[in-house]
Amino acid sequence: MITVPFEARRFQSTAAYYLRYRIPYPDTLIARVAERSGLKAGDHVLDLGCGPGQLGIAFARLEGAAVTAMDPEPEMLTAAEAGAKEAGVEITVRQGSSYDLGPDIGKLHLCIMGRSFHWMDRPATLAALDTLIEPGGAVVLFHDKQVLTSPDWRSIVEKLAETFSPERHEERLLRKSKAWAPHEAMLLASPFRNLERIGIVSEYQRDIEDIVGRVFSMSSTSPQALGDKLADFEAALRAELLEVAPDGKFTEIVESAGLLAFRS
């Protein structure tokens, strides 16, 4: 099985862009996942690989859950604390990764992950969570799928990433190859093999600043990954975006989804 090597500081330069430019998960999706999972006020939720804590904060706000937000990046945890304070909710932040899952975390009703599971040793993570998640609890993988992007800015980024960030680009292609086992296969081979998906389709209007910020929030094209090529990459990206969208406007149709995995 192919895995991506663990790199603790992979996202250290993306925190400033992630919270501002990533498309958030719709409140309706959060509410439906919480309802389906039987989440009650006070239940313990672990936001694993939390980034700036968008998911954890959303669950704390909606259900009054006791949320622990866990990430290896101090910058992400600082953003999560600030976001929770702004939202008027309390969360517990904890520096660590899936390799640090242990009984000291306490029992969980849910472990939620937003676009982070692919960075982990997935079988080992699920085995560890099996010891922590209470009967009736679940693992929930949140993700999004581009239904339509007009004009198509993603193909521009793919081409530029291949030139300016070849090693990170190769990692990304690996996760799209046939050699990469999908998350569903990993879950079906684990104790959490009863799978359901809840999806919400939304339309968004974006401008060039939004797209550039989003691109810098991705590990393959982060300021850290680009290094001294950052200025040249940004100039080329802006020029090509303006060429395909002279008015600077982009439309995106996105399906945001939660994949719920219960024990059989």
UniProtKB/TrEMBL annotation:
InterPro entries reported in the protein's UniProt record: Diverse_substrate_MTase (IPR051052), Methyltransf_25 (IPR041698), SAM-dependent_MTases_sf (IPR029063)
One Pfam family this sequence matches: Methyltransf_25
SUPFAM superfamilies: S-adenosyl-L-methionine-dependent methyltransferases
CDD domains: AdoMet_MTases
One example of a Gene Ontology biological process annotation: methylation
Limits of the Methyltransferase domain: 45-137
Gene Ontology molecular function, alphabetical: methyltransferase activity
Record bears the keyword Transferase: yes
Highest taxon of the lineage: Bacteria
Statement: the UniProt record of this protein carries the keyword Methyltransferase: yes
Entry-linked PANTHER family: METHYLTRANSF_11 DOMAIN-CONTAINING PROTEIN, METHYLTRANSFERASE TYPE 11 DOMAIN-CONTAINING PROTEIN
Protein name: Methyltransferase domain-containing protein
Species of origin: Rhizobium mayense
